[in-house]
Amino acid sequence: MLSAHLINVDFIRIAGSKHRGRGPLVPPAPDPHQLFDDTSAGFQHAQGTPASGIDMGFNTLLADPMANVAVAYGSSIASQSKDIVHKEIHRFMSVNRLKYFFAVDTAYVTKKLALLLFPYAHQNWEVRYSRDTPLTPRQDINAPDLYIPSMAFITYILLAGIALGLQQRFSPEVLGMCASTAFVWVVIEVLALLLSLYLVTVQSDLTPFDLLAYSGYKYVGMILAVLGGLLFGSDGYYVALAWTSCALMYFLARSLRMKLHPSLVPDGMGHPRGGGRGQTYVTLGAAACQPLIVYWLTFHLVR
Amino acid sequence: AFTLYSLLQAALLFVNAIAVLHEERFLRNVGWGTDQGIGGFGEEPGIKAQLMNLIRSVRTVMRVPLIAVNSITIVLLFLFG
Q1: How far is the C-alpha of A221 from the C-alpha of A219, rounded, in Å?
Q2: Which residues sit opposite B75 in a β-bridge?
Q3: Is the dihedral of CA A79, A85, A88, A94 positive or negative?
Q4: pLDDT tens for residues A252-266?
Q5: Domains of chain A, residue spans
Q6: pLDDT in tens, B27-37
Q7: How confident is the model at residue A34 (pLDDT cuts 50, 70, 90)?
Q8: A96 CB contacts (<8 Å, ≥6 apart)?
Q9: How many CB pairs under 8 A join A and B?
Q10: By the CB < 8 Å criterion, does A201 face chain B?
Q11: Do B1 and A274 touch (CB under 8 A)?
C-alpha cells in the first residue's frame, strides 16, 4: 500500500507536475501506516533542494527560455540525486525503523520520565502490538524510544560543562571528551548486550536500536545524580545515585524480562524455552551494570 | 577517557586477536575445535558451542577485510603517528 503511494508520488514528481512539491515519503492520502501527522498541507515543503520546490507555473514568468530549460534540468537532476541519496541511506539504516523511535509526544515523555524514576508502582510492562508491529511510543508507554536518551545525553553534556565550570576545570576540549566517553560507554554496553544475547540463543525481537534505547535511559539517572551533587554536595550526589540506580535496575530488569520472556505472559504457554536460565542471567547482568556505569561516568564531575 | 577512535582501535585489535587463533594447532588442543563441540539437533546449543561457532565465523568472514583494514591502519599510523 505504502509502496504504491510512493511510486505514485515519485512518478508525478519526476514528470514535473504542477502539484505543490511534497517530500517523497509523504503520501497524498492519509495512511494508517503513517507515524507522524502530515502538517505540511497548504504550503510547500521547507526541506529538500530549492530547485525541486519551484512551482512549474512559475516558468511562464521567466522571459528567458534558456532559464526555463536550465530550471527544468536542474530540478530533475536534483530530484534524481535526492532519490539516489535516499536509496543509499536506506541500504544502511532503515529510516522508517528509526522514525518509530522518535514518534513521541509530551504526555508520553512525562509519563516515561516518571516511570524511569519510580518504576515500582507500574503493573503492566508489556509492549502491546497491533498487527505484528509494535505500537508507537505515543500509544504505548512501555515502548522504548530514542528521544529521551538523546535529549538526556545532550543535557548531561551541558550539565557536565556546568559542573566543571563551577570547579574551574572547564575547557571546550573537556566537553568533547566527556561527550565521546559517555557515548562510547553506551556503544560498548550495547555491543556486550548483543554478544551475550547471541550466546544465550534467545529469540526475541530486540533490535540494536531497542538496546540502544534501553541503554540510553541511564542518562536520565546520570543527570539526576549530577544535579543532586551540584545542589546538595557530595551527600546529595550519593543519595541521588543510590535512588536512580535502584530505579534504573528495577526498570531495566522488568522491561528486558518482559521482552525476552514472552512465555511469561499469563495467557501464554507457561513453560520457559531453552535458555531461560541464560536469559535471566543476561537480564540481571545488564541491570547490575547500570549503577557501575552511572557511577563511573559521573563521579569525576562531583568532587 | 575514551574517544570513538580508541574504540575503533580496540575493536580492530580484538578482531585481530580472534583471527589469529589457529584452528588445528591451538583450538583443537584446548578442546575448542569446531568439529568437537556440535552435538545433535538439540534445542539448546549451549554457550560453548555458540562461542566456537562465533570464533569460526569471525575468522572466516573477517579474514580478507582485516587484511585491508590492517594495511590502511599501518599506513595511517606511519604517516600521522
Answers
A1: 5
A2: none
A3: negative
A4: 888 888 877 765 444
A5: 145-265+273-299
A6: 777 776 666 65
A7: low
A8: A35
A9: 33
A10: yes
A11: no
